[in-house]
């Protein structure tokens, strides 16, 4: 199996708030720094930023803005000595608009130089060579107030195939995050036509996510807060209408403002993503902080899970990999693909293998309850607790343990 990368460790330990719609121009002296900045511009957290890269360093920047307005952020690479950097910045200051923020990339590790740069209004100083995440953190950090609340974590749960129980797992994970970790959380049902979150939580709110997505001009924190239905002390629901009186066709960015609002006010947001491939579902998964793919043990699920997994790894090169679990394992007399075959195809073990237990899941669904409410000590409730800890960064992925039945041990191959 693949080892955890440095980018994955950073991703689990630190939440970086996405940058707003800003313009960024970089003036580099080396191709290595230009490549790192280009890679940062392709990161999901920089999706709203408009980035342009030039060569030539400080001198080129001062020349470029003689007769042109400066952008929101200027990144400058300077390989020269401290005195030359300061002189170049003084020249740039003569043509720099008020409000423009400057980040300098240099090779001199000198506290006195840093103090002089800060005194001249430089927002940040990075020591070359710089990595992609360093640049993302530096640019995004310019627009995060020091006293602002930590950015909320968005967890997307999606099924590799319809009917694999992804919604049930999403709702149970949201419940355990709120109940056992005492994190204020919102479960958001994005299956507007057929969503089941209202049924699963025994809620019938008059408003929900549809009111927000069909009224983009009204979206702010107060408006979204009014749409939430309270399920427990720490858990709220942004429900789907689950009606067919209109068609739910959206553009790729339709839910962006809703997610931004939730991220700014709630520590944890669990998205119940329907099994469909559209611009907005793809964008939702790419922009989430953590992703759980739910698959049943058959060939179509294996193919789909690998396709989704590979797509997300490629689309999110600076994030830790998505995780997946197997659900409905051990259906009597049903031929099944072994967990070992999934692990071989995806080059990663499942983070959980949830057995087929129709009695407790059926009872929970019919009662509008979660598994932990039916039986807090049940082994499946414990799996949901472990998944909640993993997806909120409270623990590292673990191989499935031997606490399960001999049947599950056999299915592991």
Using only C-alpha atoms, the radius of gyration works out to 24 Å
Q: What strand order characterises the main sheet? A: 8-9-7-10-6-11-12-13
Largest sheet: 8 strands, mixed
Helicity, as a percent range: 40-55%
Q: What is the overall shape?
A: elongated
**For the residues shown, what is the average pLDDT?**
88
CATH topology of the largest domain: Rossmann fold
For the record, the count of structural domains works out to 2
User: Which CATH class of the largest domain?
Assistant: Alpha Beta
What percent of residues are in strands? 15-25%
Describe the structure.
The longest helix is centred in the C-terminal third of the chain and has 17 residues. By secondary structure, this protein is an alpha/beta fold. An eight-stranded mixed β-sheet has the order 8-9-7-10-6-11-12-13, with helices on both faces. The protein has two domains: 124 residues, Rossmann fold; 259 residues, Rossmann fold. The N terminus and C terminus are likely disordered. Helix content is 40%, strand content 17%. The protein has 18 helices and 13 strands. 45% of the residues are buried. The radius of gyration is 24 Å and the shape is elongated. α5 links the parallel β4 and β5. It starts with 5 loop residues before the first helix and ends with a helix.
């Amino acid at each position: 199996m693949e080892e955890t990368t440095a980018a994955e460790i950073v991703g689990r330990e630190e939440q970086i708030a996405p940058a707003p719609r800003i313009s960024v121009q970089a003036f580099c002296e080396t191709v290595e720094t230009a490549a790192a900045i280009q890679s940062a511009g392709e990161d999901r957290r920089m999706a709203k930023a408009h980035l342009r890269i030039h060569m030539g360093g400080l001198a080129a920047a001062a020349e470029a803005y003689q007769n042109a307005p400066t952008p929101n952020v200027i990144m400058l690479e300077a390989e020269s000595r401290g005195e030359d950097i300061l002189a170049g910045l003084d020249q740039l200051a003569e043509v720099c608009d008020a409000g423009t923020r400057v980040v300098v990339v240099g090779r001199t590790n000198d506290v006195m130089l840093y103090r002089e740069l800060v005194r001249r209004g430089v927002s940040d100083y990075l020591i070359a060579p710089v990595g992609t995440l360093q640049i993302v953190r530096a640019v995004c950090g310019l627009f995060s107030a020091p006293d602002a609340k930590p950015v909320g974590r968005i967890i997307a749960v999606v099924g590799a195939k319809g009917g694999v129980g992804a919604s049930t797992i999403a709702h149970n994970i949201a419940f355990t995050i709120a109940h056992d970790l005492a994190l204020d959380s919102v479960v958001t049902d994005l299956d507007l036509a057929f969503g089941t979150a209202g049924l699963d939580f025994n809620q019938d709110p008059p408003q929900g996510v549809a009111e927000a997505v069909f009224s983009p001009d009204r979206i702010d924190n107060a408006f979204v807060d009014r749409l939430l239905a309270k399920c427990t002390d720490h858990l709220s629901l942004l429900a789907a209408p689950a009606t067919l009186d209109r068609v739910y066709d959206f553009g790729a960015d339709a839910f962006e403002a809703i997610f931004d609002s939730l991220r700014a006010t709630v520590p944890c947001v669990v998205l119940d993503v329907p099994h469909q491939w559209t611009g907005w579902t793809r964008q939702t998964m790419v922009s989430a902080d953590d992703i759980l793919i739910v698959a049943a043990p058959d060939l179509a699920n294996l193919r789909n899970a690998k396709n989704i997994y590979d797509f997300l790894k490629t689309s999110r090169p600076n994030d830790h990999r998505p995780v997946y679990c197997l659900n409905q394992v051990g259906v009597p007399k049903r031929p099944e693909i072994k967990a070992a075959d999934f692990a071989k195809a995806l080059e990663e073990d499942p983070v959980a293998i949830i057995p087929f237990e129709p009695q407790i899941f059926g009872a929970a669904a019919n009662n509008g309850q979660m598994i932990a409410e039916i039986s807090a000590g049940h082994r499946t409730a414990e799996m949901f607790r472990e998944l909640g800890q993993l997806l909120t960064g409270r623990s590292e992925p673990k191989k499935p343990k031997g606490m399960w039945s001999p049947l599950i041990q056999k299915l592991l191959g």
